[in-house]
Amino acid sequence: MSDSDLTGLLQAWRGGDRAALDRLLPEVYGLLKRMAAGRVGSLDRTPTLEPTALVHEAVLRLLGNSPDWQNRSHFLAVAALQMRAVLVDHARARVAAKRGGGAALVTLRAAEFEAVGDSVEVDLLALDQALQQLSATDARAARVVEMSYFGGMQREEIAEVLAVSPATIDRDLRFARAFLNRQLGG
Fold first, then answer.
1. How far apart are CA 169 and CA 185, in angstroms?
2. Which Pfam families match (predicted)?
3. Fewer CB atoms near the end CB (10 Å): N or C, the chain?
4. pLDDT of residue 141
């Protein structure tokens, strides 16, 4: 399905066409599953969260919100935010179940997430807190990180969503790398 077809379905659904949702979900499911597999695959210490479960929870959250997606890229950006929320909630639940006995660790690899740089073990909850601090300092850079790491989006897609140039995305990623490395002790 082309980007314009997907955008048309998103807009039709936003306009109240329930049949558009029936056509939309099978189209985006594969995209979301690939995004989820990339994120869950890096969560070596949380084998209880499968990509399918992550997608299902994210889709439920997406459907629970009032959709106002302009296009495919915007939808994927919102999906990335929902996946981040699901992953953080899952990590919090695991920590609570262990009564504070160590949070889930995430290995952030440069190939997966340009903003961190070298491979570094990071507590997912610490990453969430650092992203909140980054958001207070530079909200756009934090959104770039969310879309890049949690959404697996390419810089051109992120640039389209944020209506900035790819070079601006590169600058935001460099800033985010330095900020997160400092916050996470890397």
1. 24
2. Sigma70_ECF
3. N
4. 96
